[in-house]
Design brief:
Length: about 260
């Protein structure tokens, strides 16, 4: 594995530098995405339109677009002989990453009920992002990240892990609520109730934002921070859009419910 990347990047130092650059590029893309989303919603789900390409079956789209975020990191870990893989902190963080993407790529797509097809442009962007970010996060953790021996007992790691776990559980539970809103044969949208949906319209988005923010705190790197920032920009925008959509569509939508942050926003 080392020889492969040495051939591509010239040296480990060069690859390390490129990983740093990729992190800053991701932060820049988060800023550009923020500006774009001020004028238009991410075109998938209820906001999908034909101008973004031909429709892709929603289950197929989710499975294929998320799969690189699982397969590429598995390859990176299995083929790496770096000493970082023997460190407890690195193993913990890699496991946290895989907990999300095993569910997102191998389980979640096949639990989807109904759902609008995904425009090809959105599908292609998600596919590229999963390759980019999967390489960025796991290559750094499996080959370059160095932590103190007692990092897993550090308050930052513990707080980050707790946040990650809380966010992961909220995300999975919220997805479960959304899937079960409709009975077999029913169509159309309903008001989600239960769990964090009692407080915010974007409970599933809140869960994922908290999850990757916790991961960034525990990993304590520009690479994980860039991922958390990008996640926040995309999903907070979607939560706000959903909130406005619910208020416009349902006259009886709970007025006390916020968009993303309970009791605040």
């Amino acid at each position: 594995m080392g020889d492969i990347f040495t051939a591509v990047f010239g040296s480990e130092d060069e690859e390390h530098y490129i990983l740093q650059c990729m992190s800053y590029i991701l932060i820049f893309m988060a800023g550009a995405t923020f500006l774009t989303l001020l004028f238009e919603n991410v075109p998938y789900g209820r906001y999908a339109t034909s101008k973004y390409g031909f429709p892709v079956n929603v289950k197929l789209a989710w499975f294929v677009q998320e799969l690189p975020a699982f397969v590429l990191p598995v390859f990176l870990v299995l083929k790496s002989s770096a000493p970082q893989l023997s460190d407890t902190a690195n193993r913990f963080l890699i496991a946290m990453y895989f907990c999300h993407y095993v569910h997102r790529s191998l389980i979640y797509p096949f639990l989807i009920r109904g759902g609008k097809p995904t425009p090809f442009f959105s599908f292609a962007l998600a596919f590229v992002f999963c390759i980019y970010n999967g390489y960025l996060q796991i290559r750094h953790l499996s080959h370059f990240a160095e932590y103190p021996k007692d990092w897993v007992r550090h308050p930052w790691f513990i707080a980050g892990f707790v946040l990650w776990l809380l966010g992961w559980l909220v995300n999975i539970h919220s997805d479960h609520i959304l899937r079960n809103l409709r009975k077999p044969g029913e169509t159309g949208y309903k008001i989600p109730v239960g769990g964090m949906f009692e407080y915010v319209s974007g409970a599933n988005f809140l869960g994922e934002i908290v999850e990757w923010s916790g991961f960034a705190l525990a990993a304590h790197s520009i690479h994980s921070a860039a991922f958390a920032i990008f996640t926040f920009v995309v999903l907070s925008s979607r939560a706000v859009a959903h909130h406005k959509w619910y208020l416009a569509k349902f006259e009886d939508y709970p007025k006390s419910r916020k968009a993303l942050i309970p009791f605040i926003f």
